[in-house]
Amino acid sequence: MAFAILNGQLIDRSEAKVDIEDRGYQFGDGVYEVIRIYNGKMFTVNMHLERLAKSLDSIGISFPFTEQQLTEMLEMLIEKNNLQLGIIYLQVTRGVAPRNHAFPAEPVQPMLVAYTKQLERPIHHLQNGVKTMLVEDMRWLRCDIKSLNLLGNILAKQKAAESGCFEAIQHRGQAVTEGSSTNVFIVKNKLLITHPSDQHILRGITKEVILQLCREHDISIEERVFTLEELAAADEVFLSSTTSEIMPITEVDGKMVGNGLPGPITRKLQAGFVQEIEKQCGAL
Ligand code: PDD
């Protein structure tokens, strides 16, 4: 039997149902996290829970549990579901209340839902790289909040899927922001460039690990806006996320990146990332 957490309770997953007036369901009024599990252990869990706290704070939901309580609950969920390799999906909504755009007048209990999924590492793509396409970024101006409202993101990803691409790289005019569910990096003359973590993108946890790896491995990095032109002229391009790790991009909009093979800096960061996983979660 698989288990899920519904409001702090561990229950049979098939019985984890939410009310039709849950504000997450009606308005996307909530936030979420996706945490990677390797060898039954959560990777960078503190960073995820800190970001969750920030997202909750940005939309005025008070955190329903302490970080410590939540960590223990998630550990119990992993153990009960006997999960070795996969993810935890976790979301918190404002709660259940009669439909009204404004927040409920009477405070309601935020609704916490968490469940696990088995998921392999995308080894083939990590080795060979993926194709991507460009899509205009149509999202709102608080992309730093990991909101349940993902219409802009899913419409972008759907375009990519229909074009046989792994990811859609979004841009606001000439400025490249991020993928539909990933951060994007370019390398030019050994310099790594990625969009600053402001309100136009999500501050990816994988991105934060990459920045740390760059400091440790003396890789120069600039967090600044880069253009479509710079993307097209890059020596290397890669994306990052909890589920995709550090994934080489070998094609953007039908045009080959560099010589069409994953580049040396991407490879170096991939190796460093695996070391970091093994440090926290044990040998892969
Ligand atoms: N996506 N940008 C966006 C828009 C994202 O949705 C994500 C994560 C990232 C990368 O963040 P991180 O490195 O913390 O996973 C960047 C998750 C995995 C998802 O929605 O499934």
Plain-language structure description:
- With 284 residues, the chain is an alpha+beta fold.
- The protein has two domains: 3-118, D-amino Acid Aminotransferase, Chain A, domain 1 (2-Layer Sandwich); 123-281, Alpha-Beta Barrel (D-amino Acid Aminotransferase, Chain A, domain 2), CATH 3.20.10.
- It is 30% helix and 30% strand.
- The chain contains eight helices and 16 strands.
- The chain has helices at 23-27, 45-58, 67-80, 123-128, 151-162, 205-216, 228-232, 264-281, and strands at 3-6, 9-12, 30-38, 41-42, 86-93, 111-118, 130-136, 167-172, 175-179, 183-188, 191-194, 221-223, 226-227, 236-241, 245-252, 255-256.
- The strands form two sheets. Strands 7, 8, 9, 10, 11, 12, 13, 14, 15 and 16 form a ten-stranded mixed beta sheet that branches.
- Helix 6 crosses helix 8.
- The protein starts with a strand and ends with a helix.
- 39% of the residues are buried.
- The mean pLDDT is 97.
- Residues 34, 153, 178, 181-183, 202, 204-207, 240-243 line the site of N-(5'-phosphopyridoxyl)-D-alanine (PDD).
Topology:
Layout: E1 3-6, E2 9-12, H1 23-27, E3 30-38, E4 41-42, H2 45-58, H3 67-80, E5 86-93, E6 111-118, H4 123-128, E7 130-136, H5 151-162, E8 167-172, E9 175-179, E10 183-188, E11 191-194, H6 205-216, E12 221-223, E13 226-227, H7 228-232, E14 236-241, E15 245-252, E16 255-256, H8 264-281
